[in-house]
């Protein structure tokens, strides 16, 4: 007789979420708040650039590290409006989910699955924009990099919660393996290594121009 891995209990009780997911809810809250701040700054800069294309910002450090250069590109408004506005809309939703999760709310499976799909699309957009900045625009924006880092960690924590809660439609054979990965925080380790690799990519591509 096979033993099926069970998700976390359906209710965390009145004192808060299960201990296995509490840290992930906190991580979602912190990183989504950081992304919201960065999105607000980028949105403000976008409005400024709309009125003055020659505007200078404190993050215009050199030819490579330049918010103005990135913000003036067509990639900064993929959908016809500044990309930062997407963050202003989406991050408050994530913050609300995180706060409610910390309070012990158990969300319906469909809602957490929808959040996972939506944030996965957001993650894909963030990395597409990073690719465009590095390989086509030729400049990077510190606030954009913060959004990319924050989005990565929110995605990792949200995925961990959904795996442990049994919210994702995973193959039966893959579920125990993924649960073991997220319980031992190998997912977080992989994210840190991945981001460190991106930092090395920037250093290799731009060299001293990144810092001077």
From TrEMBL:
Name the residues that span the membrane: 25-43, 84-103, 110-129, 135-156, 188-207
Which family is this sequence assigned to?
Belongs to the VKOR family.
Q: Which InterPro entries match?
A: VKOR, VKOR_Actinobacteria, VKOR_sf
User: Which Gene3D superfamilies does the protein's record reference?
Assistant: VKOR domain
Q: How does it sit in the membrane?
A: Multi-pass membrane protein
Boundaries of every Vitamin K epoxide reductase domain copy: 21-162
Q: Which residues form the signal peptide?
A: none
Please give the superkingdom of this protein's source: Bacteria
- List keywords of the entry alphabetically: Disulfide bond, Membrane, Oxidoreductase, Quinone, Redox-active center, Transmembrane, Transmembrane helix
Where does the UniProt annotation locate this protein?
Membrane
Q: What is its main location?
A: membrane
Protein known as: Vitamin K epoxide reductase family protein
| Provenance organism | Nocardioides pinisoli
């Amino acid at each position: 007789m096979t033993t099926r891995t069970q998700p976390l209990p359906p209710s965390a009780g009145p004192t808060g979420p299960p201990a296995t997911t509490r840290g992930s809810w906190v991580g979602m809250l912190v990183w989504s708040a950081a992304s919201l701040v960065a999105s607000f700054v980028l949105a403000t800069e976008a409005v400024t650039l709309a009125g003055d294309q020659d505007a200078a910002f404190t993050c215009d450090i050199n030819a490579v590290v330049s918010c103005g250069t990135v913000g003036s590109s067509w990639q900064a408004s993929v959908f016809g409006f500044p990309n930062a506005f997407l963050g202003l809309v989406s991050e408050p939703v994530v913050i609300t989910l995180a706060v409610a999760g910390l309070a012990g709310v158990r969300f319906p499976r469909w809602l957490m699955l929808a959040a996972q799909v939506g944030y996965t699309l957001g993650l894909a957009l963030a990395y597409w924009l990073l690719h465009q900045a590095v390989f086509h625009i030729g400049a990077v924006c510190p606030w954009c990099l913060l959004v990319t880092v924050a989005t990565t960690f929110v995605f990792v924590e949200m995925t961990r919660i959904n795996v442990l809660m049994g919210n994702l439609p995973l193959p039966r054979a893959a579920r125990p393996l993924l649960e073991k990965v997220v319980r031992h925080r190998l997912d977080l380790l992989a994210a840190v290594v991945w981001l460190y690799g991106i930092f090395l990519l920037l250093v290799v591509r731009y060299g001293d121009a990144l810092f001077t």
